[in-house]
Amino acid sequence: MSNKPLTKNKQVLKFVDESAKLLNPSEIIWIDGSKEQLNTIRNKCLKTGELIELNQEIMPGCYLHRSAVNDVARVEDRTFICSEKKEDAGPLNNWMAPNEAKNKLSILFNDSMKGRTMYVIPFSMGIVGSEFAKVGIEITDSAYVVLNMAIMTRAGKECLDVLGDSNDFVRGLHSTCTLNAEDRYICHFPKTNEIWSINSGYGGNALLGKKCFALRIASNQARNEGWMAEHMVIMGVEKPNGEIKYFLAAFPSQCGKTNIAMLVPPEKYLKKGYKVWCVGDDIAWLRVGDDGRLWAMNPENGFFGVAPGTSEKTNFNAMKAIEHDTIFTNVVHDLDNNTVWWEGMGKECPKNALNWKGEKFDCNSKETGAHANSRFTTSCKNSPAISIEFDNPKGVPIDAIIFGGRRNDTVPLVYGAFDWDHGVFIGSTIGSSTTAAQSGVVGVTRRDPMAMLPFIGYNVGDYFKHWIDMGKKIKHQPKIFCVNWFRTDEHGKFMWPGFGENLRVLDWMYDVCEGKDGNVKKSEIGLMPNEGGLDIEGLGLNGDLMNKLMNVDKKEWAKEIEEIKAFYTKINDGKLPNELKVQLDRLEMRIKN
Ligand code: SAT
Ligand code: MN
Predict the structure, then answer these.
(1) Is the CB of residue 449 less than 8 Å from the CB of residue 429?
(2) Which of 125, 425, 432, 585 reaches 20 to 30 Å from 524, CA-CA?
């Protein structure tokens, strides 16, 4: 039994037909996006156990899902860019020839939906019908994926309506198959805008609109079409006079990206009338507007946020957003009141509960109750801090781009680029210090250019060149900054309070964007706040600590330069833009002098 196709688009019908032939499902369901249909699917999940209904009085519309224990995160080593030529995938991606990938995966996909339902999800990345949005069709056998995609994207029939007869849509083929990790593959075919994903049902492996489409495939489309697909927060900072400037921020994971996206101003700033608005927490699509400015829009419709560590203190807006209509994955199930819990939630550990695997959970156990990568899926609109521009099909004009990393030394709290190319150079070198928790050498920096390391869908050298080229097209270029909230003192203690107080740094950037040059001085590495330029009043930071936070240590920077050279050598297969080599040389000269 199947419901009727929701379109007459021949290309879409052909894609669905061919997929059904390969996958051999017992029925096909087209997702129309209606509440009724999603309810039916949800009820089916409650019956199969894919979802557990949580306390509907306390958390209306909230459900819990547990993934397979071997399927809890993206799998970078099983993620492939299947460009025609290997060099087009570049040194940072896994590559497989398109034919080889298709042959290999076809065998796995063959009959993999026997006895199952095949869902056809039409979805739009970006506001449906906006000239900057793009349509995708995901085929999946996972009802959990359907329900997540219905939150994370704008999904349903209207996406097919705006597509019309066009063949311009991304084809996503996804099957959970047997969830066998050894046969897990996430393959991207940039030439044909296809994604084939098999044997995972989790996050970015399975919700194909997110990293697979909106970053890896879209970065290719963006390069061809003259725009950018970036792994960035989009946020608005509103001054007491009501003026708003929009910022982009790119941080590697574990650097507080979600927290900055939903930043709550500290008391003092709230009183003055500052507000912070969230347009997006993960992905930004960027274009040059007719006005010569850079414009950003969030292609997503939801937050897929990490649960552990999220509390009223660290992320008030997220806690508000997940009070209703949210899917929780791999968190602790508190059986006493049928709610959820995780480490760092700021609430007492539940006595009668199940851990993320569904086993009895003991608060004294060494193992965490919630998986470290456990998540909440919730609509952006649920956040009290969502920007009124969230639904603006044009997006928002950008004044500043912030790059950041987690560095215990070397990188000061904040500095600004001298110009666009210098900013691109800074972005290309960001990263986080490795800790004992990671394998490999401790105390070096794991570089994560533009926080896009696992998401650049083509050669990283060409990607840097695209950044340089885009700069030339933007008449009113955003200012580019670098931040490091994580510098430590000689006892290993963080010197900067972080969280809401980061607004003080954004406030300085705001002024720099306004051309308040009196707040700025030049250093070897870039522009920095001068005395009194950065408001630290009330933080209890003495001058000595502030000097340490801002210090540019020439020895540390000499080491940094050597590391950057090594990184550039690693990625240089003749494609590293000369502009970046020039920037590195200039930095070296400034540090040596
Ligand atoms: O799993 S996702 O890619 O969706 C989230 C993440 O890893 O950032
Ligand atoms: Mn991300």
Answers:
(1) yes
(2) 432
> Given the DSSP bridges, would you call strands 154-155 and 63-65 parallel, antiparallel or unpaired?
unpaired
Residue 524 CA to residue 522 CA, distance in Å, equals 7
Angle in degrees, CA 117, 119, 123, rounded to 5:
170
Centroid of ligand 2 to alpha carbon of 523 (angstroms): 32
- Which of 82, 177, 212, 255 is labelled catalytic? 255
**Span between the terminal Cα atoms of the chain, in Å:** 75
CA of 77 to the centre of ligand 1 (A): 14
> Rounded CA gap, 505 and 482, in Å?
11
Q: 275 has which bridge partners? A: 238
Report the interhelical angle of 35-48 vs 143-152 (nearest 10°).
140
Minimal CA–CA distance to 135: which of 15, 294, 287?
Answer: 15
Among the bound ligands, name the one nearest to the CA of residue 73: 1
Per residue in 456-496, pLDDT (tens digit) is: 999 999 999 999 999 999 999 999 999 999 999 999 999 99
Helix locations, 136-217, DSSP H: 143-152, 157-163, 203-206
Q: Which string of DSSP letters, residue by residue, matches 5-71?
A: PS---HHHHHHHHHHHHHH--SEEEE----HHHHHHHHHHHHHHTSSEE--TTTSTT-EEE---TT-
159-193: b (≥16 Cβ within 10 Å) or e: bbeebeeeeebbbbbbbbbebeeeebbbbbbbeeb
* Catalytic residue status for 255: yes
Ligand 1 binding pocket (C-beta < 6 A) is 74, 203-204, 210-211, 304
Q: Which ligand does the CA of 75 lie closest to?
A: 1
